[in-house]
Amino acid sequence: MSCQALTREAGGREVLAGAGAGLLATRVALPRVPEFATAPSTPPLLYEPSLGLVAMVAGAALVAAFAAVALTAEALLRGIRADRLRQAQP
Question: Where are the domains of the chain?
Answer without folding.
Answer: 3-33+48-86
